[in-house]
Amino acid sequence: MNKPSYHPNYYSIDDVMATQERIPCRAHHELFQMGFLDSSCEKNGNLLPNQQLEVPLWYLLQDEERTRYFSLIVPDIFTAAYKEIYKADASYVELGKLNKFYYELGMYLCKFDNGDDLAEMLFNTAQERVKGIKDMCNNVSSENLMDNKKLDHLERMLYEEGSRTHRMFSDWLQEKSVNIKSTELVTNHRKRKRDALEGDEGGSQSSQRMST
């Protein structure tokens, strides 16, 4: 399983998928023969100043010089408007529906404008939602998470790991309980057997004294 990576990781499928997300941006200057970046332009056309387009995140991360030509526009799901929604009750937000790689994408965007505010929002949202994930793990059921839009990719991994650990712990407790009961049965059986033997020996000695 590919574990999430919050740093560039060439061999991580999750990282590739997260950075493949198309991010809105705006051209600072006229860029000659760069129209291929925008499907609404001619392939060999020019990008005009302030023209808005969407490019994969990796395109902006690959070379910091590109930020001289493009200004990134933070997606709505990471803006102050959604921050109020997360504050109201983050546990009911369908993060998986907003973006499958919500947290990892947000971590990448922290390096751009308002990074501190976005990082705080991500932290508070995760802190609030992890309580619900913990409750789900402690009540493992046959619920199908494939159709659960509330969890993003990282939260699904946390749930799967938490559920697995909870099942292992429950199995261990059950096995330990069985072993304890077995030990008690053996101990009680030996005690009764010892008492019976001592009783037989005591009766034999009394019979011998009476016969003499």
From TrEMBL:
The keyword Cytoplasm does not apply. Transmembrane segments: none annotated. Its main location: nucleus. One of its GO terms (cellular component) is GINS complex. Residues 187-212 are annotated as: Disordered. It is found in: Nucleus. This is DNA replication complex GINS protein PSF3. It comes from Aedes aegypti (Yellowfever mosquito).
